[in-house]
Design a protein that fits this description.
This protein is of the alpha/beta class. It contains 18 helices and 23 strands.
């Protein structure tokens, strides 16, 4: 049962590129090939004889091609257990041919979905027979080998040549596991079409060196090449990927020149200036200590001047949409330094978290305020509003409880991950003092409402002139009254930004 020689094969595929070499090798080894429709025509044009599935089933392809292989003579040949005598007797009785190899792929549902919104065209690309045959063949891996992904053609061809058509149980089981993964992801895509993007396909698994800590195993499912090209450095780690995701989420919020620095998913430095070099200098100045070993990101080309400045510190990852060639060569001088070329923005979608023997899902936190309600002593000036909007976005990318202090589009103080809002503010003020920032004229953002007026009082004492927060506390009026009394700006947005 461990060793099985391929004597017959069923081939029915949508993608035929690369199939010719496999078909020729099967023919050379004397394998009987069963096929259908376009695949049969393709093989016969290669002078490879085929047995039409219709000659086995006694039925032609019907209903516009919707029903071709859904027949006991086909599925019996796939599911028949060669080690069960009664199965063999029934197969003989009903003249069902044994199948040793099934090569079947699936209609291009996702590709169709990406290219049209026409429902009829999309529905027609929901494959029925393909997944059924793949699942059946994978289930019966003890007796046959299934291939469901054209990317595995080279592996199958090598196996056929090296083993002269012989397959072994572990090989068949490995191909079966891949086949179930193909069908799973296909069904996820169809489910998402009907029910919204509830689940993310689990494709292209890559093992990582370890998880958050060296004793934790980890892996990544997905295609990073859709988002960026890695130009230099070691393999991205679990922690790198988490920080890169946080960085991409933030940078997608801005269209003007911005530079940001991340540590443990929190933005610890960010600024907007006229040039990328000035933006870097201002971002670094916000917290030069935390920048050590950080993840850096900008939405502008990195020039030589900026590269020279960045090169002075140790960092893990740099992300940018482009690099001057001389700048890139300078940055690549450290072989482990990860340099990423961002190709597209991270698009908002569903977020997932495994917990309590289940999975939490939510949509990405998009938008920065539902309302802009000024309730303080005066209306914000143009410069204050610009800083308040910037502060609100930055605060959204800090872990709760979070406070962001902004002055002239520069993060000058932040408090994050604290168990009380006033503690977050104290941390933010202390950070600003540590790096000798003058908070007079600065603005403050909070990711959630002020439960008491202690935050506006402490902020006022530090020099803060404008506050932005969601509102919603039963004590909102206390904070508003304080701002009115002390000629301060207070903006309520109506939108909270908790981040755990």
């Amino acid at each position: 049962m461990n060793e099985k020689r391929i004597g017959s094969a069923l081939i029915s595929v949508f993608y035929k590129d690369g199939l010719d070499e496999i078909a020729k090798e099967l023919h050379a080894q004397g394998v009987s090939i069963y096929s259908t429709g376009g695949t049969q025509t393709y093989l016969e044009n290669l002078n490879i004889p085929c047995i039409a599935v219709e000659s086995v089933t006694g039925y032609p392809s019907i209903l516009g091609g919707r029903v071709k292989t859904l027949h006991p003579s086909v599925f019996g040949g796939i599911l028949g257990r060669r080690y069960v005598e009664s199965d063999l007797q029934e197969m003989k009785q009903y003249e069902i041919p044994e199948l040793d190899l099934v090569i079947v792929d699936l209609y291009p549902f996702e590709e169709t979905l990406a290219n049209t919104s026409e429902e009829a065209a999309i529905i027609e690309k929901i494959d029925i027979g393909g997944p059924s045959m793949i699942r059946a063949a994978a289930k019966n891996f003890r007796d046959l080998l299934v291939l469901a992904d054209k990317n595995d053609y080279p592996a199958l061809l090598a196996l056929l040549k090296e083993q002269k058509g012989m397959t072994y149980l572990e090989q068949r089981k490995e191909f079966a596991a891949k086949a179930f993964e193909v069908v799973m992801n296909y069904d996820i895509a169809i489910n998402n079409y009907f029910n919204g993007d509830v689940f993310r396909p689990l494709r292209n698994k890559r093992s990582l060196r370890y998880g958050e800590n060296p004793h934790q195993d980890s892996g990544y499912f997905g295609d990073l090449s859709e988002l960026f090209d890695q130009l230099n450095g070691k393999e991205l780690s679990y922690n790198n990927l988490v920080d890169v995701d946080a960085a991409l989420q933030l940078i997608a919020e801005f269209s003007t020149t911005t530079f940001a620095i991340f540590k443990h998913t929190n933005v610890c430095g960010i600024a907007q200036r006229a040039t990328v070099k000035d933006s870097w200098d201002a971002a670094l100045a916000g917290d030069p200590e935390s920048a050590f070993g950080g993840v850096l990101i900008t939405n502008e080309k990195v020039d030589v001047a900026t590269a020279n400045a960045i090169n002075e510190i140790f960092f893990e990852v740099l992300i940018a949409p482009s690099y001057e060639e001389e700048a890139l060569q300078l940055l690549k001088s450290k072989k482990n330094r990860i340099i990423l070329l961002q190709k597209k923005n991270l698009e908002p979608g569903m977020q997932y978290r495994s917990m309590l023997n289940g999975t939490l899902i939510q949509r990405s936190d998009v938008g920065n305020y539902q309302d802009w309600k000024e309730v303080g002593a005066r209306t914000s000036s143009k410069a204050e509003r610009s800083d308040l909007e910037f502060a609100n976005i930055v605060c959204k990318h800090l872990k709760s409880n979070a406070i962001a202090l902004i002055k002239n589009k520069q993060l000058v103080g932040k408090g994050c991950g604290q168990t009380s809002r006033i503690d977050a503010l104290r941390h933010a003020v202390d950070k600003a003092k540590q790096f000798e920032f003058d908070l007079k004229g600065a603005v403050m953002a909070s990711d959630a409402f002020f439960p008491f007026d202690d935050c506006v009082k402490l902020g006022d004492e530090a020099g803060i002139v404008a506050f932005i927060q969601p509102g919603g506390s039963i004590r909102d009026q206390d904070s508003i009254d304080y701002c009115v009394k002390n000629e301060l700006v207070m903006v309520l947005t109506g939108q909270r930004h908790f981040r755990h």
